[in-house]
Amino acid sequence: MPSSADFNSLMSITTRPDITMVSGSGSWITDQNGTRYLDFIQGWAVNCLGHSPQVVADALARQAGRLISPSPAFYNDQAIRLADLLTANSCFDKVFFANCGAEANEGAIKLARKWGSVHRNGAYEIVTMINGFHGRTLATMSASGKPHWDELFEPKVAGFIKVPLNDLDAVAQAITNKTAAVMLEPIQGEAGVIPATAEYLAGLRKLTRERGTLLIFDEVQTGMGRTGSLFAYQQCGVEPDIMTLGKGIGAGVPLAALLAREEVCCFEPGDQGGTYNGNPLMAAVGCAVLEELLKPGFIEHVREMGSLLRDKLEALSRKHHLGEVRGAGLLLALTLPEANGDTLVVQARDKGLIINAARPDTLRFMPALNVSREEIEMCCEILDEVLTIDATGTTGVTV
Asked: Could you tell me where the DSSP H helices lie in the chain?
């Protein structure tokens, strides 16, 4: 069992409770004291099949005995198989594999800038969204629109123009002859699960085509079945030129992907790479995950459970006089009338439920995609108990 001295050996980058998670299965995770928690964060939408799914364990064990990393200098059969699965089930033609969503987004930024230099007279600027989130590399932080990052790690990477989400006129005004692309999340996850409207996304597609720029969807959080379709773009009938995936594609292992249409792909040898990118160990997991998501009835289950969770959260909102429920599929948020989200998260954890406060006034829910009806009901029962507590005078009170 770790001591506080053991905690101190880790660099401090965030506030964590003094517990250590040691095992997990499905929707449940267990700490060093044997306490089990119902996990409705799942690694921030990472564990799409829950904790330690058998298909992932089997894929890792099987591939580890065959080939782990031949280096990016060679093709490997698992990367080819995963790329074929992704292109066969999307509107894209080519795939580049990475290790995390930020790295995939970094690749998207590079590809857009290379395309701009080749096809748009050196255009390099990318229009992104206020409150957007694209990762923690220097370029992806620069592309993100988190307000408290404005003065962090200066000087930032130049060339990112921020506009409000769902404001098509603002995008139109921001696009110039220096613009290579427009980049956004179909649903802003870290901002509190704020959806881009279908009309806005359709307008962006029309606008970017008229202006001769690329459209990039960051589907690191929304992709891989999370919103009730394999990819979020499929729900709005808008096909971007570039899409990024992360989180759920690896179901807990470091895997991400950059997908693009053939005519956009302009990297030359040496432009892009990575020591571990597309290694067969992680790609084998990606194949197992995608094959699971493509099984008959899986996505239908996501939609059914998403509808159930939404109904339950809306009932809680009515009962406790809270705010709206936002999102799609199993990426949902419940808004609060007061900025007491962090308090509710702690109180829920004390009762065995792990949820997230994306913002002080917003609770976010990202359960495993194979979550059961009983687990959703248990989550909402615990949350109901927490919301009924009035010990601090800040939580919702039943009247």
From this structure: 4-8, 42-45, 54-64, 77-88, 101-119, 138-143, 168-174, 198-211, 233-236, 280-293, 298-320, 341-350, 373-388
